[in-house]
Amino acid sequence: MAYVSAEARREQLIEAAVRVIAREGADGATTRKIADEAKAPLASLHYCFQNKENLLLAVFAQLSEELPVDVDLPEHEGASLGLVVEQCLTRAMQWSVQNPVRMRAMIEVTLWAERYDPELSVSFYDAFLKSSETVLRQVDVPIPDEELHSVLRVAISLVDGLSLQMLTNGDKERTLRDTATACAMLKAFLDERARETA
């Protein structure tokens, strides 16, 4: 049997966990099933992650890093907040449509955290809010912080809801059309608020 570094084994186990979680849910994704999916000894899973909870956290961290929340600011210098929110939401939903197994795993791990450690699931959302706010703060934000946070929570809810609908009905084209509708609504709201506060 060829030697596999601990880092390479970690990556194999995370990828296997994504597939098993998407297929069987976080509760059904036992360490044995994940190790079998990775074609790795069960002991290597425990060596790399100690327990299932740490592996699920690593899965969430990996998927969170993949989900795009950034924008290409050079082409958006002087862009409105509405345009930047539109780009962020569109990119996140394009990733979801292109990676349904990964999105399903992310949703499953979030629901697992909400069931077993509600504070952890709150921290998941807080991390998304902070990273999204960091991106938006790079452009002119013409609305109060409280209102911006509300817009971000709505945008995250749209990603969750549209992704869940796509996973349920499998209609990727409709999901992208619905995303465009949601973006137009948010952009119209933000553009109007910018005019009111100007």
Describe this entry's structure for a reader:
This protein has 198 residues and is an all-alpha fold. The protein folds into two domains: 6-59, Orthogonal Bundle (Arc Repressor Mutant, subunit A); 67-197, Tetracycline Repressor, domain 2, CATH 1.10.357. It has nine helices and no strands. It has helices spanning 6-28, 31-38, 42-49, 52-66, 81-98, 100-116, 118-136, 145-169, 172-197. It is elongated and about 65 Å long. The termini are far apart. 30% of the residues are buried.
* Proportion of strand residues: under 5%
The CATH architecture of the largest domain: Orthogonal Bundle
SS-based class: mainly alpha
The residue ranges in which pLDDT falls below 50 over 5 or more consecutive positions are none
SSE order, one letter for each helix or strand:
HHHHHHHHH
CATH fold topology of the largest domain: Tetracycline Repressor, domain 2
Beta strand count:
0
Indicate the overall shape. elongated
Specify the biggest β-sheet: none
Measure the end-to-end span. Answer: 67 Å
Name of the top-level CATH class of the largest domain: Mainly Alpha
Rg: 19 Å
List the total number of helices.
Answer: 9
Mean pLDDT across the residues is: 91
Helix content: over 70%
* Domains, number: 2
